[in-house]
């Protein structure tokens, strides 16, 4: 961004009060903000006491060597014990932990907490037999099957930091992550089910392990999921069912220091080379458990929670595995895609299990908007009581669509801002407290200090735009970038003194609510004005014919940059028939909503947008296209043919 602050273009006046019954029984009330403000560290110490510690911590935060934080440093605990055993010991062994729904419709499995304890214990014993010791790194490359959860918890149980690599990544991406973390064991499967067919995984592991830098991998533990033929390296490869199933289902968890490494997770790579984010034990579990209880208002006896993320990214770590299980939740785990075998699959799952709390991403909501309102309307979604969103800014129209078509115009929506680096939710409404605003993540959670500052680090207000920063350390913060303290300092702590720089643009409205405006790297500079990608995209999505939009700034001799928009039209709109008239209509629509400065110079209807496997739009690739450049790193892209399709649409593109 230049020295101009971000323009404030979008106005949104709609408000939604929390439902009275939810507010009356909410886990967290407005008082929590006051309490945390009066004594922030005391507040977090109290949240930490909700966990079961082998040695209770007496210290809360050690910030003597900033920005290298230690939380609850003299405490000891075992994460797997907290997520599993303690619920069994409290008499909840028969409670369902996981309703597993495979992609093939009749392929389901119900796992109680007692069973989870046995499965995790066996897996922990198996890893120990393979020689895995506390501190050794284990790479996990699995589909969304229960063994992914067992494997993560087994690693946590024996103190072996895991590095989960998304099952859709290529052999190269996997090899780079194995090498960076210096993993000793890889846990994978023969494959998984994807769009109605078995899809192999093990070949990518075999290929990755031929790459230099992966030599320290001693064993590959392979879950049999599809039963398809799989190449086998004797002495290295071990079947899960042969090694794990025969182990004792008892295992005594060892307590680890609160700062013992829990996992390394590589960021989703939206902007460039992924970073190996290191999270540790006590603070991470404290904040994931607290935020899950607070933001989703989880009632473990009655709620059925479902987070649609993949365990391969941070939302899966914090809000499928650690947060919900630490809270004793009953949750759904679904293997497949939302449109297999039909575009109502998700809503069928909500109806089947009576899901009450749903957590998903704007990309999925926009896809459902594109498919049409009639699809969710066929299912009974009346069990839902809180809806969550994460991953990108949610366009106000997508927010309204979500509330109306999924939430029956009844459920609060919690738009949760956070990152791999923050470990847990940081900025979000509370469902029983906050009057929500479509498109705004609103306010930092109790105990979190975050704000928006301008170039000179001065706080902005009244619609002023700038950079989102976190101003005080928080329990689940990243501790460093694995093996690269300098990159940790440079990336997050050098832009502003004593403030964590998140890399996201934001503004604050007159009520003090925070609006995320997209990544700082993506902000466009048009005739001296900094314009947010999010605001222009939201204006486009507010047009009834548009389901999704991505905008970028392309170099322009007159205006520094000009706005180029790529739009996906709603299912019932025929792009060919609409032709240039629609493009003109959309350009005028944006001008009307945001002002002439934000009017896109070019608008291109496309069938797909380039996205990371976690569903985020990769604008830098679109910028490459708009500027007729060779594409940058595409290794984290879902489907590279999307780029060819888009390039072929551009006049003059190579
Ligand atoms: P990389 O850092 O490698 O480019 P990434 O930032 O996509 O990858 P994640 O940690 O998965 O990796 O994503 C965090 C980012 O997602 C945030 O910095 C922000 O840009 C965006 N984001 C997440 N939740 C929200 C939200 N509720 N509103 C707006 N943006 C969000
Ligand atoms: Mg990031």
Automatic annotation (TrEMBL):
<feature type="binding site">
    <location>
        <begin position="194"/>
        <end position="197"/>
    </location>
    <ligand>
        <name>CoA</name>
    </ligand>
</feature>
<dbReference type="InterPro" id="IPR011904">
    <property type="entry name" value="Ac_CoA_lig"/>
</dbReference>
<feature type="binding site">
    <location>
        <position position="541"/>
    </location>
    <ligand>
        <name>Mg(2+)</name>
    </ligand>
</feature>
<feature type="binding site">
    <location>
        <position position="543"/>
    </location>
    <ligand>
        <name>Mg(2+)</name>
    </ligand>
</feature>
<feature type="binding site">
    <location>
        <position position="504"/>
    </location>
    <ligand>
        <name>ATP</name>
    </ligand>
</feature>
<feature type="domain" description="AMP-dependent synthetase/ligase">
    <location>
        <begin position="90"/>
        <end position="474"/>
    </location>
</feature>
<keyword id="KW-0547">Nucleotide-binding</keyword>
<dbReference type="InterPro" id="IPR032387">
    <property type="entry name" value="ACAS_N"/>
</dbReference>
<feature type="modified residue" description="N6-acetyllysine">
    <location>
        <position position="616"/>
    </location>
</feature>
<keyword id="KW-0007">Acetylation</keyword>
<feature type="binding site">
    <location>
        <position position="519"/>
    </location>
    <ligand>
        <name>ATP</name>
    </ligand>
</feature>
<comment type="function">
    <text>Catalyzes the conversion of acetate into acetyl-CoA (AcCoA), an essential intermediate at the junction of anabolic and catabolic pathways. AcsA undergoes a two-step reaction. In the first half reaction, AcsA combines acetate with ATP to form acetyl-adenylate (AcAMP) intermediate. In the second half reaction, it can then transfer the acetyl group from AcAMP to the sulfhydryl group of CoA, forming the product AcCoA.</text>
</comment>
<dbReference type="GO" id="GO:0003987">
    <property type="term" value="F:acetate-CoA ligase activity"/>
</dbReference>
<dbReference type="Pfam" id="PF16177">
    <property type="entry name" value="ACAS_N"/>
</dbReference>
<keyword id="KW-0460">Magnesium</keyword>
<dbReference type="InterPro" id="IPR000873">
    <property type="entry name" value="AMP-dep_synth/lig_dom"/>
</dbReference>
<comment type="similarity">
    <text>Belongs to the ATP-dependent AMP-binding enzyme family.</text>
</comment>
<feature type="binding site">
    <location>
        <position position="546"/>
    </location>
    <ligand>
        <name>Mg(2+)</name>
    </ligand>
</feature>
<feature type="binding site">
    <location>
        <position position="315"/>
    </location>
    <ligand>
        <name>CoA</name>
    </ligand>
</feature>
<dbReference type="InterPro" id="IPR042099">
    <property type="entry name" value="ANL_N_sf"/>
</dbReference>
<dbReference type="Pfam" id="PF00501">
    <property type="entry name" value="AMP-binding"/>
</dbReference>
<feature type="domain" description="Acetyl-coenzyme A synthetase N-terminal">
    <location>
        <begin position="30"/>
        <end position="83"/>
    </location>
</feature>
<feature type="binding site">
    <location>
        <begin position="415"/>
        <end position="420"/>
    </location>
    <ligand>
        <name>ATP</name>
    </ligand>
</feature>
<feature type="domain" description="AMP-binding enzyme C-terminal">
    <location>
        <begin position="535"/>
        <end position="616"/>
    </location>
</feature>
<dbReference type="InterPro" id="IPR025110">
    <property type="entry name" value="AMP-bd_C"/>
</dbReference>
<keyword id="KW-0479">Metal-binding</keyword>
<feature type="binding site">
    <location>
        <begin position="391"/>
        <end position="393"/>
    </location>
    <ligand>
        <name>ATP</name>
    </ligand>
</feature>
<feature type="binding site">
    <location>
        <position position="527"/>
    </location>
    <ligand>
        <name>CoA</name>
    </ligand>
</feature>
<dbReference type="InterPro" id="IPR020845">
    <property type="entry name" value="AMP-binding_CS"/>
</dbReference>
<protein>
    <recommendedName>
        <fullName>Acetyl-coenzyme A synthetase</fullName>
        <ecNumber>6.2.1.1</ecNumber>
    </recommendedName>
</protein>
<dbReference type="InterPro" id="IPR045851">
    <property type="entry name" value="AMP-bd_C_sf"/>
</dbReference>
<keyword id="KW-0067">ATP-binding</keyword>
<dbReference type="Pfam" id="PF13193">
    <property type="entry name" value="AMP-binding_C"/>
</dbReference>
<keyword id="KW-0436">Ligase</keyword>
């Amino acid at each position: 961004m230049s020295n101009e602050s971000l323009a404030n273009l979008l106005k949104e006046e709609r408000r939604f009060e929390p439902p009275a019954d939810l507010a009356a029984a909410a886990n967290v009330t407005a008082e929590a903000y006051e309490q945390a403000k009066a004594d922030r560290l005391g507040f977090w110490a109290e949240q930490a006491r909700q966990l079961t510690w082998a040695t209770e911590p007496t210290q809360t935060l050690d910030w003597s060597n900033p920005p290298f934080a230690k939380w609850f440093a003299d405490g000891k605990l075992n994460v797997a014990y907290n997520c599993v055993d303690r619920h069994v010991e409290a008499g909840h062994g028969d409670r369902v932990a996981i309703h597993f729904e495979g992609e093939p419709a009749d392929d389901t499995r119900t796992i109680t907490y007692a069973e989870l304890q046995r499965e995790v214990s066996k897996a922990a014993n198996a890893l120990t037999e393979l020689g895995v010791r506390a501190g050794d790194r284990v790479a996990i490359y699995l589909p969304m099957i229960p063994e992914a959860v067992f494997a993560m918890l087994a690693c946590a149980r024996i103190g072996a930091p895991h590095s989960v690599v998304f099952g859709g990544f290529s052999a190269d991406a996997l090899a780079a992550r194995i090498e960076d973390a210096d993993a000793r064991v890889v846990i994978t499967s023969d494959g998984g089910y994807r769009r109605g067919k078995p899809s192999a995984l093990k070949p990518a592991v075999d290929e990755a392990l031929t790459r230099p830098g992966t030599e320290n991998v001693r064993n590959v533990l392979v879950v049999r999921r599809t039963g398809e033929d799989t190449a086998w390296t004797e002495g290295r490869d071990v079947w899960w069912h042969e090694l794990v199933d025969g182990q004792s289902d008892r295992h005594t968890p060892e307590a680890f220091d609160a700062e013992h490494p829990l996992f390394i997770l590589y960021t989703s790579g939206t902007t460039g080379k992924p970073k190996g984010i290191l999270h540790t034990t006590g603070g991470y579990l404290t904040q994931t458990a607290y935020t899950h209880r607070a933001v989703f208002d989880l009632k473990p006896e009655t709620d059925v929670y479902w987070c649609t993320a993949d365990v391969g990214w941070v939302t899966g770590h914090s809000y499928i595995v650690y947060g919900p299980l630490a809270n004793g939740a009953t949750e759904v785990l679904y293997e497949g895609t939302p449109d297999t075998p039909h575009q109502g699959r998700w809503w069928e799952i909500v109806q089947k299990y009576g899901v009450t709390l749903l957590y998903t991403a704007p990309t999925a909501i926009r896809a459902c908007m594109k498919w049409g309102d009639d699809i969710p309307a066929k299912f009974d979604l009346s069990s839902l009581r809180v809806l969550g969103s994460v991953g990108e800014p949610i366009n106000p129209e997508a927010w309204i669509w979500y509330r109306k078509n999924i939430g029956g115009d009844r459920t609060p929506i919690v738009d949760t801002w956070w990152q791999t680096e923050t470990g847990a939710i940081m900025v979000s409404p509370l469902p029983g407290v906050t009057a929500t605003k479509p498109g705004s993540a609103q306010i930092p959670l109790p105990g979190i200090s975050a704000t928006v500052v301008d170039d000179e680090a001065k706080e902005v207000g009244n619609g002023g735009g700038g950079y989102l920063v976190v101003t005080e350390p928080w329990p689940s913060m990243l501790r460093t970038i694995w093996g690269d303290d300098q990159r940790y300092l440079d990336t997050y702590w050098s832009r502003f003194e004593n403030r964590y720089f998140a890399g996201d643009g934001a503004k604050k409205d007159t009520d003090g609510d925070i609006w995320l405006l997209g990544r700082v790297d993506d902000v466009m500079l048009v005739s001296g004005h900094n314009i947010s990608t999010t605001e222009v995209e939201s204006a486009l999505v507010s047009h009834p014919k548009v389901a999704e939009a991505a905008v970028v700034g392309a170099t322009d001799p007159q205006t520094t940059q000009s706005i180029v928009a790529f739009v996906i039209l709603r299912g019932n709109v025929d792009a060919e028939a609409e032709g240039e008239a629609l493009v003109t209509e959309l350009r005028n629509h944006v001008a009307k909503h945001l002002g002439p400065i934000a009017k896109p110079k070019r608008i291109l209807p496309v069938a797909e947008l380039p996205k990371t496997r976690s569903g985020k739009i990769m604008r830098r690739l679109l910028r490459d296209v708009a500027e007729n450049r060779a594409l940058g790193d595409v290794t984290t892209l879902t489907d590279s043919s999307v780029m060819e399709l888009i390039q072929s649409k551009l006049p003059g593109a190579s």
